[in-house]
Amino acid sequence: MKFSKLVLPGVSMIAATYGLARFSFGLLLPDMNESLQMSEFVSGVISSLFYLAYCFTIILSTMMTSKGGPRGMILSAGMSSFAGLLLMSITPNEWILALGVLLAGGSTGFVSPPYGAAISLWIEEDKQGKANTWINSGTSFGIAFSGAGAILLTPHWRLTYFIYAILTLLFLLWNFRAIPRVKSGSEVMLKKGNLSIRGLKGSLSLVFASLILGISTAAFWTFSRSFVEVAGAYSEWQLSSFWIVIGLFGVLGGFSGSLVEKAGLSIAYKLGSLAIGTSSIVLAAQPGNWFMACLAAGLFGASYIFLTGVLLVWGIRVFITNASLGIGIPFLVLAVGQVIGSSFAGLAIGSWGYAATFILFGVVGLIASLLGPNNQECQARVPGT
Questions:
Q1: Overall average pLDDT of the 98-107 stretch
Q2: Domain limits of the chain?
Q3: Which class in CATH covers the domain with range 3-179+193-378?
């Protein structure tokens, strides 16, 4: 299959599910809190539902992709995202909002493993690493778009979610036309649960690193916009620009596959985790300085998308016989960490304030740099990388 025929609709669906349905929540949260009269604790718990739903659906998606191919799960992701965004656009209270969040969060779990499988099925081996990391960077395009939408539509968060729902429907139709069906008896069909001995030995460090990284990033995704808003006398366009910076710099994460090839998996991981921890600390130190806040946003956006690309490559190296499982495991554990981190961040902010909470989560990110792939995993052969 032609590279762009799969990658471009893939980027659009990742942008819709991750950028619009999931991570735009933090940008729109202050207006939702005011409109629905939610406390920081309630909004933190609702935010954690994104990750909780993700944990369940990524397991289901990994199994179903291995059994029936990627097309069904990709389309399920689009439908779940559309339904969640639509509910969030019409919600009269926090209960309906929570249901919409569950559907929107579930879409991200549905979508990740099947694209890894689709790439392994239909993209040439020497282009697979680049395809994986560029589809993964679709999150950044969605985040940047959501920031631009907030500038134009603030404070109309319901209308914003409705527009996102319509865009997601269009992306769903694009993927419906672009993603082929896997023919019965295909020689390239993936085998459910086919793990290598090397995969079993190398999975522990991958799981721990993904968990700690998930915890360390939860506060920034959910509360960074709120932190900046209360810390400085910023206009609405400056607050939305803060979010756009996260997305635009996140596009740089698409180069993670190239850096892994040149510098090695271990170095790429350590650089990314050090940057992710530093971003929270920088924001905690100077939240009232717009330049420093944007610097923290850019550092976080670039390092987060970069790190998810590194985890993606690392996972495929560990579980070398099943691409969907290699993506599913680290992304699942990353989400488990974000469930823990998001709920704790809401409590910590209520008790200690934003600055102390962000410093704490930044330190957790720095600790994550001590965990990483060992030499055997770094030297493992990865098809397409």
A1: 94
A2: 3-179+193-378
A3: mainly alpha
